[in-house]
Structures are given as structure tokens and as C-alpha cells.
Amino acid sequence: MDYVGLAEGAAEKMELYRRDPSGWRGCRRMSEVSVSWRPSAEFAGNVYRGEGIVPASPQDVWECIKPVADGPRTKWDQNVKDFEVIEAISDTVSICRTTTPSAFMRIISPREFVDVILMKQYEDGTMLSAATNVEHPLCPPQPNFVRGFNYPCGCFCIPFPGEPEKTQLLSFFQTDLGGYLPQTVVDSFFPASIAGFYSNLTKAVKALKA
């Protein structure tokens, strides 16, 4: 499997989503984030876009969200129970397994996701983490988890012009949760989950700086 090619493809999709403002429909707005969606071209679901300003430098925000083993994400992100690197392909590409706890009043049982993840830094200081689902021989489906699938998804940490202690965080979530969930549950879960992601991240960067 061409893991590097798949990771680079996911990053290219993120850049396309970032540049394409058309077709997004707002579904949730809070002080930390504005959430919108449109039908996915990858699977029979939606792609969600979160956009917000985090009151911290891009480096501090990146420190909280970067996909690395023993990173802080499992501590602050209520949707990440465990995160492990299965194989490091290069300095910037790795195969990772993420498990999530039960959610939505236990209607959604624990999930596991296996993704190839690419980390990238741009000349303007923007940092990107992009991912998409893969299979890996060291990571067969585990009992007690439903295997879900992330289609091209990721987060941009974008410097805020003239304000070093602000970061524009632009994120795209595109996930097939697997199993047999009513569509109304899925449609309610993601906007609430993304809002929680931004709210908890804001608290995490404040704690990091304290």
C-alpha cells in the first residue's frame, strides 16, 4: 500500500477544501467555532468544516493537537481515548490507531480508526495535520470496537496576521462511524463533537500557557 501517496493525497484534499468556499451550510455557531457541512464526495455522509480563533500561538495550538505518541490530545480531547503510532513511515508520515470512548449517551459504542497521517509546515508558518483511513497488517480489527473510517480530514493551524498570540484553526472532519447508527444520531453528533473539540482545545492551550 502506498502510504505516503495516500497521505499526500489527503493533504491535497485539505488544501482544496480550504480554498473552496462553495456549498457549505452552517449548522452550529459558538463563541469558539463556526461549524458548517456539505455532502461528502468520498462516502455517503457529510464533510464538516470547523473554523475558529484560538487565543494562543500556532506553536502552542500545534503542541496540543499534533498526532504523536504520548501527546496531550488524549488528555483534553473527549473523543480520543487512546492514540498509538503503529509504524513511522518517515519523519512526517505515520500509521496511527485511534480509539474513541462511547458517546452520545452511549448510543455510539467505542470506535477504532486506523489512519495514515501526514504533518506538514508551510512557508507562512501554517501547520497541517492530514489523515485518511488505511489498512495495516499490524492492526486488524479489535474485539469490543466498531471499526470506523476517516476519509480525508485534518486541521490547519494558521498564523493570525499581526497577532502572534492568535491562531486561526480550520478543521475538516469526514468520518464514517461504521455500525448501524440512525442518520439523525450521526447528524447531531458531529456538530456537537466539533464544538466540544474547539472548546476543550481552548481550555487546553490556556492550561499549557499557565
Index terms:
transport, 10-stranded mixed sheet, lipid transport, 4 helices, alpha+beta, 210 residues, Alpha-D-Glucose-1,6-Bisphosphate, Chain A, domain 4, START_lipid-bd_dom, cholesterol binding, 12 strands, globular
Write a structural description.
By secondary structure, the protein is of the alpha+beta class. It has a single domain (3-209), classed as START domain (Alpha-D-Glucose-1,6-Bisphosphate, Chain A, domain 4). 27% of the residues lie in helices and 35% in strands. It has helices spanning 3-19, 58-65, 73-76, 183-209; strands at 25-29, 34-39, 46-54, 82-88, 93-100, 111-121, 127-133, 146-147, 149-150, 153-159, 167-173, 175-176. Strands 1, 2, 3, 4, 5, 6, 7, 8, 10 and 11 form a ten-stranded mixed β-sheet that branches. Strands 9-12 form a two-stranded antiparallel sheet. It is globular and about 50 Å long. One of its GO terms (molecular function) is cholesterol binding. Residues 7-210 form the START domain. May be involved in the intracellular transport of sterols or other lipids. May bind cholesterol or other sterols. This is STAR5 protein. Keywords: Lipid transport, Lipid-binding, Transport.
